[in-house]
Design a protein that fits this description.
2 domains; Neuraminidase; 45% strand
C-alpha cells in the first residue's frame, strides 16, 4: 500500500514543466495545517514556536503548526481593502533582552489617494497579543494593485521594504523622488540611514514594477521576486543604488530598445526570468538537511503557475544553476515560511481578488518529506495509535483508550469527514472519490498525520 501511495504522490507532485530540470522527490506530501482563513499574505516563524501570518483583510494570527489551533494577535482598522490592496508583509524582530516587535505593512486612504504604511507593534507574551501601534513610515504611493509590500529585517538593524509602482501615473519607478516602484531601506525608528544612496531618502534601489518576494541568503545577499507585465517575471539580487529597468525594461536586456536603455542607465539584469509570467510571490532562502536536495536554494511560489519553484544557487549565491518545478495542485500560492528546523510551510491564496474570493479556499500547508509524523518536536508514542487501510476500509487502532479525534482532508485541504472515539474504529471509504486523502489524529496534545489512497 505504501509503495503504491508513494508512486502516486511522486506522479502527482512531479509534473514536468518546460524549461525546468526535474529532480525526483521521495515521499513528498502536503499536510493541511489550517484552512478557511484570510489570505495568508506573509508567514513568519514566531518567537513562541507558532506560525504567525498576516491576513489580507487586516488580521495577524498565530497558528500551531502541529494542531492547527489559532488565535488572533492583532486586527488593524482603517485598511483600504480593494483588489490587491490590504495588509501585506511583515517581519518579527526580537532584541537582546527578549522584547519582540513586529513591523507590518498595509494600505490606507488619505485625501482620496491610496498609500502604504509600515507600523511597529509590541508583542505581549503573557496574553499573546500585539499592541501599541506606532507608525514607522507612511505616505508611500500605492494603489488597488501593485501595492504588495514585503518587509524584511536586516542584520544591520534596518528594514528593507518592497514598494510596487501602484500603477500610478505618471509612472514613478524611474523617478527617484517618488518612493513607489522602489526598494526602501529605513532604520527601525523610521529614520533614513545615512549610507542610503540618496541624502534624506529611503530609496535603496529603483526601476521595480511589483516585487512580492524578499529574503536574505548566505553572504548577506538580498533576493527579490518581481511580477513582469506580459513576458517576464524576475528574480533579482537587490544591490545598493541599482536600477532594475522598469518600465523601459521587462526581464532581461534582450530587445534592441531595452539594450540601449540598459547601457545608458546601468540596469541590473535578473538572475532568473520566467516567461510567460507566473505571478511570482513569496520567497525564502533554504539551506537545511531536512530537504537535502534543496540546500542552498531559493524556494519561490507563484500565483498563476500553482507551483513551488526551487532555484538551486551556485556556491557564491549569485546565480541560478538549476531549477526544479513542483506543481502543488493547490492553485494560487502566496507565501512561504521555513522553520528553524527546516520545516517548509506554504500559504494558499485562492480566496483573493483573482481566485474564488472565499476564505474557505485559503490555508497553510506543510510540505513533508516522508509519510510519518511531520512534527520534529512532538513524537507520537510508539504503538499508542495506528492507522490501517484495507479494502477501502479505514481502521484506527487505539491501544491506550484515551479519547481521540480525527479529521480527513482531500488533496486540496477540504475537510471531508470528522471522527472521534475513545476506542478502535473502522469506517468504510466508499463515500469518497478515488484519490489521495490525509488524516490527522489528535490525542493528548500529540498529533499523527498520514495519507491514504482510495482506489474505487
Amino acid at each position: 500500500m505504501k509503495n503504491l501511495l508513494t508512486l502516486l504522490v511522486l506522479i502527482y507532485f512531479a509534473i514536468p514543466h518546460t524549461g525546468f530540470s526535474q529532480k525526483t522527490l521521495s515521499d513528498l506530501i502536503v499536510r493541511p495545517v489550517i484552512t478557511d482563513i484570510q489570505v495568508p499574505w506573509e508567514m513568519r516563524w514566531g518567537p513562541d514556536g507558532w506560525i504567525w501570518t498576516t491576513g489580507i483583510e487586516g488580521r495577524i494570527i498565530r497558528v500551531n503548526s502541529t494542531t492547527g489551533e489559532s488565535s488572533v494577535l492583532y486586527e488593524q482598522t482603517g485598511i483600504t481593502r480593494s483588489a490587491e490592496s490590504g495588509m501585506h508583509g511583515f517581519d518579527i524582530v526580537t532584541n537582546d533582552i527578549g522584547e519582540t516587535d513586529v513591523y507590518v505593512s498595509y494600505t490606507y486612504t488619505e485625501s482620496s489617494k491610496i498609500y502604504l504604511r509600515i507600523i511597529k507593534l509590541k508583542y505581549n507574551q503573557i496574553n499573546a497579543t500585539l499592541t501599541n501601534p506606532t507608525t514607522i513610515i507612511e505616505r508611500i504611493g500605492a494603489g488597488t494593485t501593485h501595492s504588495g509590500c514585503r518587509v524584511k529585517y536586516m542584520p544591520d538593524n534596518t528594514l528593507m521594504i518592497t514598494a510596487g509602482d501602484g500603477r500610478i501615473l505618471p509612472q514613478p519607478s524611474q523617478n527617484i523622488a517618488s518612493w513607489s516602484g522602489k526598494t526602501l531601506r529605513v532604520n527601525l525608528d523610521g529614520t533614513f540611514p545615512q549610507d542610503n544612496p540618496f541624502p534624506n531618502s529611503p530609496v535603496w534601489s529603483w526601476g521595480h514594477r511589483n516585487h512580492q518576494g524578499l529574503c536574505i541568503g548566505k553572504n548577506g545577499i538580498i533576493y527579490s521576486s518581481e511580477h513582469g507585465e506580459n513576458t517576464e517575471d524576475e528574480v533579482n539580487i537587490l544591490t545598493k543604488a541599482a536600477n532594475y529597468g522598469w518600465p523601459a525594461v521587462e526581464g532581461y536586456c534582450n530587445l534592441p530598445q531595452e539594450q540601449k536603455f540598459c547601457a545608458d542607465s546601468n540596469v541590473y539584469e535578473p538572475i532568473a526570468g520566467f516567461s510567460p509570467t507566473l505571478g511570482l510571490a513569496g520567497m525564502e532562502y533554504f539551506d537545511n538537511s531536512k530537504f537535502p536536495d534543496w540546500r542552498n536554494s531559493l524556494l519561490l511560489l507563484s500565483l498563476k503557475g500553482n507551483s513551488l519553484h526551487v532555484l538551486h544557487l551556485n556556491e557564491n549565491g549569485d546565480s541560478v544553476v538549476k531549477r526544479t518545478n513542483i506543481n502543488m495542485g493547490l492553485g494560487r500560492l502566496r507565501s512561504v515560511c521555513v522553520s528553524p528546523q527546516g520545516r517548509v510551510f506554504i500559504g494558499r491564496s485562492q480566496g483573493d481578488h483573482y481566485g474564488t474570493k472565499s476564505t474557505q479556499q485559503n490555508g497553510i500547508y506543510e510540505l513533508a518529506s516522508k509519510i510519518s509524523n511531520t512534527d520534529d518536536e512532538i513524537s507520537y508514542p510508539d504503538g499508542a495509535i495506528s492507522i490501517r487501510t484495507d479494502n477501502n476500509v479505514l481502521t484506527i487502532i487505539n491501544n491506550n483508550q484515551f479519547d481521540w479525534n480525527a479529521t480527513i482532508y482531500d488533496i486540496t485541504g477540504r475537510v471531508v469527514q470528522k471522527l472521534q472515539s475513545n476506542n478502535n474504529l473502522s469506517t468504510p471509504l466508499n463515500m469518497l472519490s478515488q484519490g489521495v486523502y490525509f488524516i490527522t489524529i489528535h490525542q493528548n496534545n500529540t498529533v499523527l498525520t498520514q495519507s491514504f489512497l482510495v482506489t474505487e
